[in-house]
Amino acid sequence: MFKVAVCALLVLASTAINVQSSIWTSKDQKAFAQIHQSGWGKFILNFAELHLTTGGILSELNSEIEKLIGELEEELAGVHHEFNRRTDVHNREVARLEQEIQDKERELFNAHDFYDNVLIPQGERFAAQLEQLQENIAQNRQTLEQATVQRANDHETFEAQVVEHNDAISAIDECLQLLSTLEAPSLAQIKKVQKNLTKIQNSLKKHNQFQIFVKVLLEITVDSNFADQGALRDIVVAFNNLRVELVDSLNQITADEADQVAEFNAQVIQLNQEHAEFQRAVVVKNAEIEANTTKQEQTLDLIDELDADLATLNGQLQAENDDYAFATDVYNATVAEYNKEINAANQALDLLNQPRFQDYVKSQLKGA
């Protein structure tokens, strides 16, 4: 339609209406000026003048112009329809994008919350637990080492005590053997008994419970000449009593040593079991730490992905809004142009149906 209008305007350019003619009132001239601002209005007036000056019928002209106006209004309705359709598409697209943006923002918030409030504290807790396990292992090994050293020291002490007791018992046995042969002991024999007592005393110098007993025996042997058989028997009884005490003591420290060995072995077993449990716990904790680290990395990757998706969606929403804003500007400009053309066409139609326009055409024919 617009191409036809342009061609028609070029053809009619030489037949433009003389608006300065005395037949027109100032109001008519003003109307002409407004109509001439519209391509269609100007075309209609020129076409009307040409049509009438060539013998055309006014009713036919009105019909053609009204048809032309109807086509313009139909085209305008099409513009409205297309824009309404574009608006519907825009509203659906905006609603979809805004919903997706809201969903992404929720996912992003949840991912940040999971990372900050679950994974990070969990990782810190796992690290502290691993550190505690490592400290437990170190303490376990230190306890085992200390217990092993103490057991070795205690066993060394036990062996020394066994030697001391055996030496003392041997000395007593030697004294008893010597005393059993004494009837009229010589000075040399008495000296030998006293020497053995000194040996016993030295062997048992660490055992206070025997010191008084040995001291008394020394005093007896020093003061006695062993001639009195009664005194000799008393000395033998004293030696036998001391021997019994030493044997009981030896048996006791041997039993204590066995108990300590059993206690040590049980402690070693317990410590090694605890150590094995700690080691297994370390393996489990390292696996948990590795899983936590992997989950942190995956969550950070997810956050980056969600950030990128959110930026894309926001970009799409902005592009859609910009595109719709541009379409709206084009629509408003197009509607304004159509309304201007339709109003001008209606004004031109109204003007050419006035008697003054027909008188103008007649005057133009007479002048020709």
Q: Would you give an account of this structure?
A:
- It contains eight helices and no strands.
- It starts with a helix and ends with a helix.
- The longest helix has 124 residues, at 229-352.
- The protein is an all-alpha fold.
- It is 89% helix and 0% strand.
- Helix 3 runs parallel beside helix 7 (229-352).
- Residues 1-23 and 364-368 have low confidence and may be disordered.
> Which percent band covers the strand fraction?
under 5%
Backbone CA Rg: 64 Å
Number of helices: 8
Structural class: mainly alpha
Major beta-sheet overview: none
DSSP E strands, number: 0
Helix share bin: over 70%
* Nearest-integer average pLDDT: 79
Quaternary form = single chain
Low-confidence stretches: 1-23, 364-368
* N-to-C series of helices and strands: HHHHHHHH
Shape: rod-shaped
Distance between the termini: 32 Å
